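Researcher: I'd like a candidate sequence for this fold, 447 residues long. If you have to choose between options at a position, lean toward the conservative one.
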């Protein structure tokens, strides 16, 4: 094999087989004392992770490392979707998924290492940035902004979480460590504050968006990354600036707005909030409560929702992309426009990433749903990369697509449930401890 052929093989997105799982055994998850995953649980989680990791390898560009925002859920193995819109958020999930794939042996080590290097080189040397921040959507091969996409601090943060995971997992590789460090350290976080104490929502066409990241949601990762930066940190007071609204639903009280369930999941995919709290909350336990409340909310809607069929979040729907809300979002008499926007018009759809993303919070309940959905609807809803993004069996609607960020949250949280691998790897970045300290976190013996 000559050098040119070897490079072609390493950069290829040719189909890799889904290898059978060997030596499956019970595993004790890292989140719930006294709860043991059964061998069937482990077998399901391993398949979910394996299939999800293949999305990030097969639907990522061997040139740029950018990952498509979405792809066909039921195409044959190895086929690249012809669409061009990549997402830096999906790319961040993808870098972490590649670390999991290497850790679990899903993809040959040489291929993973090559893809990670190519991804970091491209973003470091060739992809345009604005004060270290990247545009949300880009052309998958060229990295050029897709249409009129915005420079996004939250999506840049998702990318950085993946970059920092790769930095520590491949810490012995000098090039990966250097590129990852540079990409993080060059982000000018105070610039995105735009003269205030909270981040602007985004920047486009020479000006900042008027809105701010000003209430509890997936924003915690963004503020923590900025607090921990050794080169361009933001004031510690910014952690206290955003609001923490309190939701009351039934017997549940927790910090939340009427937002989709993913807002309680994304930051937790990388930052380990277990057994610690700031002066406001233990955010891990807050997400446990939010998931319990979401389950109760779905069950209160009646059929088709049940203990085996619940969970909605931002996802595709029959009406297009919809930010399905949870408790507090439902209108009693929704209009057609409300239904199209997901405000109260919950129509019987189920979104698999809702329970997949909460696996580490509520293992027994979420695993029950995940396994039941595959058993009952797998013939139509389970494809090359796992579940399609959403489906509505009563309407005989099954999304033809899967989405990178929705697959990604399930892959990461499944691995955190099984081993804590992402949490442990990410926490080895020294900036993480600095961020928690500057935000005022301390040990919480109660959980």
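Model: Candidate sequence:
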């Amino acid at each position: 094999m000559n050098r040119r052929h070897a490079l072609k093989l390493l950069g290829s997105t040719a189909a890799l087989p889904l290898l059978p799982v060997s030596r499956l055994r019970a595993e004790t998850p890292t989140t719930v004392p006294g709860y043991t995953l059964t061998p069937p649980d482990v077998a399901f989680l391993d398949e979910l992770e394996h299939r999800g990791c293949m999305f990030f390898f097969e639907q990522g560009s061997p040139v740029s490392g950018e990952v498509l925002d979405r792809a066909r859920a039921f195409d044959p193995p190895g086929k690249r979707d012809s669409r061009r819109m990549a997402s830096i958020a999906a790319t961040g999930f993808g870098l972490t998924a590649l670390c999991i794939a290497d850790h679990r042996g899903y993809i040959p080590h040489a291929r993973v290492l090559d893809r990670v290097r190519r991804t970091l080189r491209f973003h470091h040397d060739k992809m345009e940035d604005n004060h270290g921040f990247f545009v949300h959507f880009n052309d998958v091969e060229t990295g050029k902004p897709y249409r009129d996409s915005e420079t996004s601090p939250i999506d840049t943060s998702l990318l950085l979480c993946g970059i920092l995971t790769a930095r520590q997992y491949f810490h012995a590789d000098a090039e990966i460590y250097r590129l990852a460090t540079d990409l993080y350290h060059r982000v000018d976080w105070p610039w995105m504050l735009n003269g205030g104490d909270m981040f602007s929502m985004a920047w486009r066409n020479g000006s900042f968006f008027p809105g701010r990241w000003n209430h509890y949601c997936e924003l915690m990762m963004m503020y923590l990354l900025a607090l921990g930066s050794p080169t361009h940190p933001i004031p510690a007071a910014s952690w206290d600036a955003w609001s923490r609204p309190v939701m009351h639903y039934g017997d549940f009280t927790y910090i939340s707005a009427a937002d989709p369930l993913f807002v309680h999941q994304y930051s937790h995919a990388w930052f380990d909030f277990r057994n610690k709290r700031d002066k406001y909350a233990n955010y891990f336990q807050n997400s446990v409560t939010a998931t319990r409340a979401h389950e109760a909310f779905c069950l209160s809607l009646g059929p088709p929702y049940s203990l085996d069929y619940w969970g909605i979040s931002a996802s595709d729907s029959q009406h297009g992309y919809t930010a399905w809300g949870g408790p507090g979002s439902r209108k009693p008499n929704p209009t057609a426009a409300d239904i199209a926007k997901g405000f109260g018009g919950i129509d019987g759809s189920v979104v698999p990433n809702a329970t997949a993303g909460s696996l580490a919070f509520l293992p027994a309940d979420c695993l029950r749903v995940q396994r039941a959905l595959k058993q009952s609807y797998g013939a139509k809803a389970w494809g090359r990369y796992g579940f399609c993004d959403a489906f509505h069996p009563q309407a005989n609607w099954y999304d033809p697509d899967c989405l990178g960020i929705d697959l990604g949250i399930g892959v990461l949280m499944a691995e955190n449930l099984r081993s804590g691998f992402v949490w442990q790897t990410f926490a080895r970045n020294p900036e993480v401890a600095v961020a928690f300290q500057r935000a005022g976190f301390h040990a919480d013996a109660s959980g």
